[in-house]
Amino acid sequence: MSIETVLDKIDANLPEATERLFDLLRIKSISTDPAYAADCAKAADWLAAELSALGFDAAARATPGHPMVVGHAGGSGRHLLFYGHYDVQPVDPLDLWHRDPFDPAIEDTPKGKVIRGRGASDDKGQLMTFIEACRAWKAVHGTLPGRLTVLLEGEEESGSPSLAPFLKDHADELAADLVLVCDTGLFDDRSPAIEMMLRGILALEIVIRGADRDLHSGLYGGPAINPIRVLTRILSDLHDDDGRITLPGFYDDVDELPDDVRAQWQRLNFNHERFLEAVGLSVPAGEQDRTPLEMVWSRPTLDVNGIAGGYAGAGFKTVLPAEARAKLSFRLVSRQDSRKIEEAFRAYVASQLPADCTAEITTAVAAPAAVNDLSDPAFELARAALAEEWQLPASYTGSGGSIPVVSLFKSILGLDSLMVGFGRNSDQIHSPNEKYDVESFHKGMRSWARILHALNA
Ligand SMILES: [Zn+2]
Q1: Cα separation of 12 and 385, whole Å?
Q2: What is the Å distance from ligand 1's center to 206 Cα?
Q3: What distance in Å separates the CA atoms of residue 70 and residue 88, rounded to the nearest whole number?
Q4: Where does the Peptidase M20 dimerisation domain lie (predicted)?
């Protein structure tokens, strides 16, 4: 089976593929605003019809929110579950767009041709790279590439409320060997990447209380404990001088990077001086024995996000406050368990509390990190296919943030996700004048054809 004929078909089909993407981009599928519910349903129906025309057994399936599009194609070999989302972010502020966000067009820019419109990149353009790769494959071979299930969500931009229940209710139907996710980007403008790890999060609020009322520091200053002093002491002792977090056991479940991945990261063209300079900083403040990329992608952190207590308004008030509070968040990696970290934090705070003080700790958010098991040969096959298409090495990368769907695929379906995307930092997703480079769309289709070829060989 030659891949070249499929790639030629993709090249020849680019104008029609772009027109089909425009049809999808014209549908105003803004998931967060109930006024666009009918548009979301329309986008789901449009996609179900496209998949059906390609030979998928496909339908838009009702959920308590917007529909889920599911399509199955028989075939043999590795069962792949492709995920994308057809909903988009609101377009406000509308006056900052230089064209109607739902009237897509190709524009010439100094950096090449771009497809302009809401969803051009996130995620309609990206998900269509996969569907169009399937179309070219079908045109050449008469069948779809292997055993495929497609799952297209309509609520990703509004918190995915229906996704976990849908995955649970349809776990048998959605069983597969690997998930393909197309909702990420290139590392820089040219280098392909496979995102291999996303950090998790544990967000907490802590309130330290002392006296049963606010006091006057002239009357009580000295004998009365000050909760702000207690809180700031607790917080400041959570990091040592080398930027490490001091909670006992905090690093127990943190895995070291595989050597080959570390070597890839060292080769990446990441300029940390410029990264910091862009926000008025110069010196990396995290763990001193780690590179800035590791700090952001593969190492856990703790940050105080807010702190309050006493009087901080205009003028001055010599108050000795009854309480002080802070909000903090950990970014978690590897196998770190948010419950274990929270217990360690509670134990640490309890050990630091002086007489007459209490601490109240509440958890706001907890989600584990998502780390893919790279021992599946699919990852290396995909990496080679991407390098072939882009003519540059493809790297495994991390992400400081999280993509909740990837954690759900892991926890509910037990599946790893191959996260491949062709977006660029300049795409302005979620902002006015969103674009997708024609090159991303074109080479994205070709990349999927190569990956599907490699995984089915
Ligand atoms: Zn997205």
Answers
A1: 21
A2: 33
A3: 19
A4: 198-356
The encoded tokens of residue 355 equal 């007489």
Domains and CATH numbers, the chain: 3-198+370-455 (3.40.630.10), 200-254+300-367 (3.30.70.360)
Residue 5 C-alpha to ligand 1 middle, in angstroms? 31
Predicted TM-score (pTM) of the model is 0.88
E strand spans, 174-262: 178-181, 193-198, 200-209, 215-216
**Could you identify the residue written with the tokens 């309050």?**
308
Q: List the beta strands (DSSP E) in 296-379.
A: 301-309, 319-320, 323-332, 358-367, 370-371
264 closest CA partner among 179, 181, 195, 182: 195
Supply φ then ψ for residue 7, to 5 degrees. Answer: -65, -40
Q: Is the Cβ–Cβ distance between 194 and 397 less than 8 Å?
A: yes
The pair phi, psi for residue 388, each rounded to 5°, is: -60, -45
Question: Ligand 1 mean position to 400 CA, how many Å?
Answer: 16
Residues sharing a CB contact under 8 Å with residue 256, sequence separation 6 or more, in sequence order: none
- The model's pLDDT over 138-191, given as tens digits with 9 standing for 90+, comes to 999 999 999 999 999 999 999 899 999 999 999 999 999 999 999 999 998 899
> Angle at which helices 124-141 and 37-53 pack, to 10 degrees?
20
Note the pLDDT tens digit of each residue in 178-229.
Answer: 999 999 999 988 999 999 999 999 999 999 999 999 999 999 999 999 999 9
Give the separation between CA 166 and CA 63, rounded to whole angstroms: 8
Whole-number Å distance, alpha carbon 121 to ligand 1 midpoint, is 8
Q: Report yes or no: 419 and 181 within 8 Å, Cβ to Cβ.
A: yes
E strand or H helix at 450? helix 438-456
Q: Running DSSP on this structure, what letter comes out for residue 94?
A: G
End-to-end CA distance of the chain: 8
